[in-house]
Amino acid sequence: MAIKTLVVDGDATHTKEIAKSFVSSSSIEVKSVHTKDEALKQIEESDVIVLNMLLNGMDSYELLKVIRKNYKDKIIIATSEFISADMMESISSYQINYFIKKPFDTTSLEDIIFALYSRHTNTPLENENELKLEITNLLHNLGIPSHIKGYNYIRDGVEMLYKDASLVGSITKELYPSIASTYDTTSSRVERAIRHAIEVSWVRGDYNLMEELFGNSIDYDRSKPTNSEFIVTLADRLKLNGKFV
Q1: Coil/strand/helix, residue 108
Q2: CA 69, 103, 176 angle in degrees (round to 5)?
Q3: Which one has a higher pLDDT value, 223 or 134?
C-alpha cells in the first residue's frame, strides 16, 4: 500500500517536479495542490503532508491549525526557502514531524517520508532506510544543502563506508569511482563536488556539532577536514550510535 503524500506549495514548478519524480513509485503516491482551500479537500485521504510555510499570507499556519485540530495522526513535513528563529518557534506548537529547507532533492524527501511513516505507524522498516535518514539528518545539521551535487555524493559515500570499512584506505581508488559510476560522472568531479559541499558546510553548519565531530582531529579555526576525514568521521559517528547493525 502506497504512502499517500500531499504536497502543498504555491510553486507549481516545484510541485510538478516532485510529482514527476515519484510517478513510477509503487511505495509513495504524491498529489500536489497550491492553495490552502485545495489542500483542505485532500487532507483526510493523505498520510503525509509536505507543507511550504510560505503560502499566501497566513494560509500555512491556518492549515496547520486545521490539521492538528481535526487530523492529529497526520505526518507533517514543513518546508521553507527561508528559516528564522521566529518561524521555528511559531511552528513548534504544531508538532511538526520534520523540517526540511528548500530546495531539497526528492531522494532525501523519499527517505524522510519512509522513516517517519514507519515510526508513526510502527511499521517495520529496513535498517537501510533508517540509516539513510540518519545520514540525511547529519548532513542537514552540518549545513549542506540537499540540492548541490556534493550532498548526494557525501550521502552515498558515508553509506558505503558505513557498510564496508575496508574502503577507508581506498576512497580515491574505489569509493569515488563507484559514486561516479552511479551518477554518470567522473571521479575528479565527485571529489571537487564533495570538497565544495564541505566548504559550504564550514560556513553554514552547526558550530557545536562541527566541534563535536571534528574538533579532535583538526584545527577548526584554521582548516577544514579533507574529503576522506569528513566522510570517515560521519560514518564512524553513525557506527557509534549503533542503530543499524
Answers
A1: helix
A2: 130
A3: 134
Beta bridge partners of 30: 5
Name which residue leads in pLDDT, 231 or 130: 231
Q: C-alpha cell of 95?
A: 508538532
**Crossing angle of helices 227-241/207-214, nearest 10°?**
90
The pTM of the full predicted model, rounded to 2 decimals, is 0.59
Report yes or no: 136 and 100 within 8 Å, Cβ to Cβ: no
What Cα–Cα distance (Å) separates residue 93 from each residue in 9, 22, 65, 87, 88? 21, 31, 10, 11, 9
Nearest residue to 145 via CA among 198, 187, 212, 185: 198
Report which residue type is found at 117: Y
Q: In this structure, are residues 66 and 41 in contact, taking their beta carbons and an 8 Å threshold? A: no
SS3 of 81, please? Answer: coil
Burial label, 68 (beta-carbon count in 10 A; 0-12, 13-18, 19+): middle
C-alpha cell at 166: 575496508
Asked if residue 205 has pLDDT above 90, the reply is: no
Q: Looking at this protein, which amino acid is placed at residue 37?
A: D
Paired with 33 in beta bridges are 8
| Contact indicator for 195, 138 with CB cutoff of 8 Å | no
Whole-angstrom Cα distance, residue 51 to residue 61? 10
| Edge-first strand listing for the sheet containing 48-52 | 28-33, 3-8, 48-52, 75-80, 98-101
Q: Which residues of 46-65 are buried (b: 16+ CB within 10 A; e: fewer)?
A: bbbbbbbbbbeeebbbebbe
How far is residue 207's CA from residue 196's CA, in Å, rounded to a whole number?
A: 18
